[in-house]
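Reviewers of the previous submission asked for a worked example of the structure-prediction workflow described in the proposal, so we include one complete record here. The input consisted solely of the amino acid sequence. No template or homolog information was supplied to the procedure at any stage.
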Amino acid sequence: MSYQLRREEILDGDALTAMLEESPARAAQAILMAAREGVVDAQALLGQILLDGHGIAQDQPLALRWFEIAARQGHLMARNMLGRCHEHGWGCLADAALAARHYRVAADAGLDWAMYNLANLLATGRGVASDETQALRLYRQAAERGHAKSMNLLGRYLEEGRICPADPSAARAWYRRSAEGGDFRGQFSFAAVLADEGKIEEALAWLRQALAGGNLNFLRVASKALLNATDAQIRALAPDYAQRYAELEKTLAPL
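From that input alone, the workflow returned the following structure tokens.
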């Protein structure tokens, strides 16, 4: 299938998404045209592809600018991404306090990703006063909206009984939902619960999924944790995690 850049397609969000999957460079042209037409979803999407360098030359300061334009029009994910840029110094100086303010605007408006990101800052005291009670509340709110990463962290609080009563049964349920929702950390957490229950084959299946989707930092930590597993089959996955970590590290290393 090929796409013609007719105006009705340019202004259609589904068409832009389909184009981005099939032909990133061609889609980037359409997204840019739509953004210039004032389509707020396209403005936010343009910020994302500029940030990632997906189909277009990476330009973090310009990505930040388009997120700002979309956020001013009330686009919640663009507001959240402004927070991400300021938290990590993408296209600007890192400023966790400013990031928290952006996250709070989007979180108060109901965006689960912003709840999660703000909760992370509150839990660690970055840019805001440390407040794990509020962090837990936000993780729970985001989890109840279907946010898989928040489900895993809510499960962790419930498992450990940190600032809330311990509830292993509820923790297990949230870990399972997180795993099924596609979060690699949730998959790892749920696998640990299954392993403790003696369900080794199920645990291995989730560990393999976590291996396939895990990022660099997760794989580094998880590979070491697996070395201490009681079950030999689970320990045997540690080299696979270490190998995948090495592969990703190589691809991310500067040339």
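Residues 238-252 form the longest helix (15 residues). We consider this example representative of the routine output the project will generate in years two and three.
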